[in-house]
Amino acid sequence: MDIFALPKNFIKDKQKKYPDKSAVEGLKSGEGVVIEDEGRKIAVFKNGDGKILKLSPVCTHLGCVIDWDSSNKNWVCPCHNAKYNSKGLVIQGPAKKDLERL
Q1: Most buried in the list 6, 9, 30, 82, measured by CB within 10 Å?
Q2: Number of structural domains, the chain?
Q3: Can you give the residue range of the structural domain that contains 39?
Q4: Are 82 and 99 in contact (CB under 8 A)?
């Protein structure tokens, strides 16, 4: 286990550039993306009915910004590998709390 993974990913996370809200228009059903809208990061998922779900992208474990894993159709924290389903519910720890709905 890389003991430096958390600090490296946390710093990388703070420097990462996110697409703007126009990226939501290109989402297909079953896809998610983290966007930045007026300086605020938002995790966005488009369900099978075409409805958009907005979540806080901040992992409830230690505060890293989650990423969309298109192969598994879930949200993943790059710092400790916590996983959330498309609706933001915890499916694998170390996170214990679900993502906040916006």
Answers
A1: 82
A2: 1
A3: 5-92
A4: no
